Amino acid sequence: ADGHVVACTQPRRVAATSVAKRVAEEMGIELGSTAGYAVRFDDCFDAATTRIKYMTDGRLIREMMSDPLLSTYSVVMVDEAHERSTQTDVLLGLLKKVRRKRPELRLIIASATLDAETFVRFFEEGVGPDGQAVESSAAIMTLKGAGAHPVAWHFLDE
Prior knowledge:
Layout: E1 5-10, H1 13-27, E2 35-39, E3 42-44, E4 52-56, H2 57-66, E5 73-78, H3 86-101, E6 106-109, H4 116-124
Helix pairs in contact: 2-3
């Protein structure tokens, strides 16, 4: 699995575990096989077979302590990036540094309400390991129909 795993971070443990469970269910596979999760005090993945691992921002930061270049992963997705926290901001800064040494690492920053231009500017600024300016390969993708689910308001009489 080394180098061929997708890491998908979530801001909260409940989100990481429930998304992993849903993905495994939709794929018709056992949780912890191809899709798994790793959160504080709870892991459900197999290092040999898991290809997409859901985790909290903090868990990925912790993994970076022993694997600073995230060599296990080919893609890192930071989901719900609009829910800014200290851990999310630290993770994004660390990922920017990792990309200088591993330009092949793909980053996906996902959000329903994010100011995408801010993140494009953040990741395009910098220099590579050779000291040369790094060109941005960032692209902004917008999904049509996202958020198009009907919303109904219900009020309780008091």
